[in-house]
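Render this sequence as a predicted structure.
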Amino acid sequence: MTVRVLLLDDEELVRGGLRLILESDPDIEVVAEAGDGTGVLDLVSRHRPDVVLTDIQMPHVDGLQVTAKVTALPDAPVVVVLTTFDLDEYVHTALRSGAAGFLLKDIPPRELVHAVHVVARGEAMISPKVTKRLLTHFTRGSAEALDRVGTLTDRERDVALAVGRGLSNSRIAAELYLSESTVKVHLGHAMAKLGAGNRTQVAIAVHDAGLV
């Protein structure tokens, strides 16, 4: 299936470069683009993207606001934020708000294309270069986070911890000797108990609890 992408960045040259990279893959189509998030809800409604790829720092309506607006929609597309800064606290806020991915603008073209396909499949994609630094930098190890993780069954906890380590469903299935469908069931239950909207928020929850 073709992945439909909405691009948001205040630099036209950057948008053009991203479009060229993404559309070099025959299975990705950039359906619309804009210089900020002012009309993002209308663009999502008209073009029905699968992925919203947004710069974090834009005038008027920035990537944080875009993330909050889009993820609140019913049947929302996934949001991936782009930034130049690998430890920008705004990025962490965007992830907590439901962004499915966080990528640096210096990501190699092939990895960007791969990331779009990954998030379109429902998995998280955080730039490997900064995943550990980002989560460690903002980890609180709070009692509240520990309490929430404590509501998980043993298998749900195993799956949540594996997600926190950045493993895909197939890797988790192999490591825990489960089928992928069973992993998805446990992950779904874990997300509900943790109040997580996606895999990234599961990862943040277990990092906040100091377990990964």
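Summary. The mean pLDDT is 84. The first helix runs from residue 12 to 22.
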